[in-house]
Automatic annotation (TrEMBL):
Name of the protein in question: WYL domain-containing protein
Family annotation (InterPro entries): CBASS_pafABC_assoc_protein, HTH_11, WH-like_DNA-bd_sf, WH_DNA-bd_sf, WYL_dom
Recorded superkingdom: Bacteria
Domain Helix-turn-helix type: 10-62
UniProt cross-references to Pfam families, sorted A to Z: HTH_11, WYL
Sequence ranges assigned to domain WYL in this UniProt record: 141-203
């Protein structure tokens, strides 16, 4: 469990037993981390403005106001709408399942009125997609994050199938298509593999060597490459 999920989990755990306290030790056991980590997390939640306080004594612990929720970083309505629209663009991408659950989580922690407003506004935004568009396989995401050699059964533009062992380096999204950028052992070079042409994806146990991806390796003839996270 990453820290963000753990913070949300801590809030819900304390709300579930409120007004009874929950000790840091029990919380540490519940989330399988150290007591010190839990105490740091609770301080962070208190600093964010959540009404959490400590009750001293042998049966004491931490208590939260049962009506409290951990909002998504104090988003404004426009920010919440932007997040929902951004997640909606992933409807046919390899991260579509995670995008749907992320959208539900964000709406769940917004105040009811703001959640309803953001949802209503987002429902007015539509994406025009081709009827024959094929979604990238969800295993694409696993291939990207695994830091392992991946075995692909791949079909090229001409319909020829091949099996490739590749070392994932990143991905590119363009006009609804997703490409896995990887070092191809068969071609001994960087190649782009289109998600909808991946017939099977197998993540092996082999760790690939460290490779640096240079812009020149991609040989993009047009357009500007932009990272998903910009300063």
């Amino acid at each position: 469990m990453n820290r963000t999920d753990r913070l949300y989990g801590l809030v819900e755990e304390l709300r579930a037993v409120s007004p009874r306290p929950r000790s840091a030790r029990r919380l540490a056991e519940r989330f399988e981390v150290s007591v010190r980590t839990i105490e740091r997390d609770l301080v962070a939640l208190q600093q964010s403005g959540l009404p959490i306080w400590a009750e001293p004594g042998r049966t004491g612990g931490y208590v939260i106001d049962a009506s409290a929720t951990l909002g998504p970083a104090g988003f404004t309505l426009d920010e919440a709408l932007a997040v929902l629209i951004g997640l909606g663009t992933l409807g046919r991408g390899p991260f579509r399942h995670s995008a749907r659950t992320a959208a539900r989580k964000m709406l769940a922690v917004l105040p009811d009125g703001e959640a309803a407003r953001a949802s209503a506004l987002a429902s007015r935004v539509h994406f025009l997609e081709g009827e024959d568009d094929v979604a990238a396989p969800p295993e694409f995401a696993a291939a990207l994050r695994a830091d392992r050699v991946v075995r692909l059964r791949y079909q090229d533009a001409g319909g020829t199938e091949s099996v490739r062992e590749v070392e994932p380096l990143g991905s590119i999204g363009k006009e609804g298509q997703w490409y896995l950028i990887a070092w191809c052992r068969l071609r001994d070079g960087v190649r782009a593999f289109r998600g909808d042409r991946m017939l099977t994806i197998e993540v092996t146990e082999e760790r690939p060597p460290q490779r640096a991806l240079r812009a020149t390796d991609l040989a993009i003839p047009y357009g500007r490459l932009r990272s998903a996270i910009e300063d």
